[in-house]
Amino acid sequence: MILLRDEATDSGYDLALVTTDLTTPAPALITRYAWRWSIEVTFAEARDLLGAGQAHSRTRRAVERTVPFGLYCYTITVVWYALHGHQPNDAADRRERAPWYTTKTDPSVSDMVAKLRRVIIAARFLPTRSGRPTDQEIRAVQQAWAVASLDTAAA
């Protein structure tokens, strides 16, 4: 067992690490833990925010696909946010809506997921959606299909 504490504060131990590895020196074990921490946070966020690993899969293939798909969705969300969703005032807006985040300087993955959800919902309820065909375009396609079907029947 390795117990860590900040010497500047006298509030007990900040972290307790338990390991079965009795040959690796304590500083190396602490370093390994620090390297692994961001990975564990990613797994926890993918599970808690996106439901990765929560499906009740019954077949081997479903089990092998569910968690990677959840992590893929996590990755897509972060990449979307980095490329299209980030606005410089996002963290300030979040602090305004949640004043207990007094020291928040960067958006969390939870903020990214919430923003993506807002963008998707807004896109679904816009009065005109980009990419949606007009009535005239729909009629032109229907006429082309009718002509093609007549040509096929005549041949």
**Secondary structural class:** mainly alpha
Radius of gyration over alpha carbons? 26 Å
* Total beta strands: 2
Mean pLDDT: 84
- How many strands, which pairing sense, and closed or not: the largest β-sheet? 2 strands, antiparallel
What general outline do the C-alpha atoms trace?
elongated
As a percent range, the share of helical residues equals 55-70%
- Which parts are unreliable, with pLDDT below 50 for 5 consecutive residues or more? none
Question: What's the number of helices?
Answer: 5
Strand-residue proportion = under 5%
| Sequence of secondary-structure elements | EEHHHHH
The span between the termini is: 83 Å
Q: Going across the major beta sheet, what is the strand order?
A: 1-2
Describe this structure as you would to a colleague.
With 155 residues, the protein is mostly helical. Helices cover 61% and strands 4% of the residues. It has five helices and two strands; from the N terminus they run ββααααα. A two-stranded antiparallel ribbon has the order 1-2. α1 crosses α2 (60-85) and α2 (60-85) packs across α4 (109-124). The model has no long low-confidence stretch (mean pLDDT 84).
